[in-house]
Amino acid sequence: MKHIIYVVTFLFVCLCTTSFSQKITYNYLVDSSNIDTKKVMTLFENYIHSKPDSLYDNPYWNNEEKKQYKNFDFLARGEFYPSLYMGFPIHVLSIKSNHGLYEIKAQFSNCENGTPYILCIANFYAKKENEEYRLYNALPINRQQWLNIKVGWVNYYYPPYHKFDTLKAQKMNLFIIETCKNLGVEPTSFTYYMSNDFDEIQRLRGFDYWIGMGGEIKPTGRGGNNEVFCSGMGENYFHEPYHVLIGPHYLNQHWWTSEGMATYLGGSRGYSLEWHLKRMNTYLKSNPNINFNNMLSLRTMDEYSDYRYVIGGLIAKRIYEKGGWNLIKEFMNTGNSDEDYYKAIEKYLGVKRADLNEYIRKQIEIEANK
Ligand SMILES: [Zn+2]
After folding, report:
1. Cβ atoms within 10 A of the Cβ of 140, count?
2. Torsion over CA of 184, 187, 188 and 194, rounded to 10 degrees?
3. Beta carbons of 146 and 204 less than 8 angstroms apart
4. Domain ranges of the chain
5. What is the pTM for the complete model shown?
6. Ion ligand 1: residues, CB < 5 A
7. What is the CATH class of 147-368?
8. Ligand 1 center to residue 22 CA distance, Å?
9. β-sheet with 154-158: strand ranges across
């Protein structure tokens, strides 16, 4: 039996649609001769070859989601840059049907010098809309297995094993109301998905595997488009909601300002700014060569602390302490470029770029010893 599968697999692997730019191949499919499976295969191929990385009224996606969302293909953007459809050859691993609902499991990968490089394994759904098969997102289908409750501004989704904490949800709402008031923004409702492990969130979205998966399980969050995905932090992780609520209203700011404010108010990777500053202080003592005069070129300290969050948070904290919300609002409107950021620090904190290394190291020391 194994041999037959190998042969069939080989045949299917050879059935490539090489005339198109994004190559699609198939693993052994149990019912590939079935008329409906064939239709689903054609639908998927048509979609992949229809420039799914550009936004237009794509005929292969269902109308219901297209009407509701501008970025109707939830996997297209956000996870990979510039897009999931950046040209990786696609290998369809399986097509499973459940009473008319088809799940297409597709691997996006290439092979260099005999070593496979797998970007992700993503699930697409297909079902009939007005007698024709159309593609659907995995998220709204998968979340039917999760529990859902709306508390104030937040529409929570969580796995059935989780015991919902209403007090934490109320704290989240207080944070939303206070932060929006302080920054002169109208609150908006958003959806908040939470789980213990980020892999559960990714599976919910449709990813069985993605490049970067693995490592120690630690608090993780992502946000955008009125949605927050986070793991390990429960009902009141403020960092990502901060971005979702405030980000669209302050477009003329450096990304360190945006990350710094989110970390100052909501922590990063599940830990407070104070926690990160204490760790960074210890780290800097044994790394005297790190120079903050060039701080915007610094990236990660380790898997928990990034300079843009921690130093960005420290700068935001100092500006708040100097002039409250009014000065913060001004600071959040000082331009996107690196030069703008250094200039704003000089303007609002009186620290020249050439003195930043001394200043930042001293301020971290002060914060760590509080
Ligand atoms: Zn952030």
Report:
1. 13
2. 120
3. yes
4. 2-138, 147-368
5. 0.88
6. 259, 262
7. mainly alpha
8. 33
9. 147-151, 154-158, 190-195, 227-231, 220-224
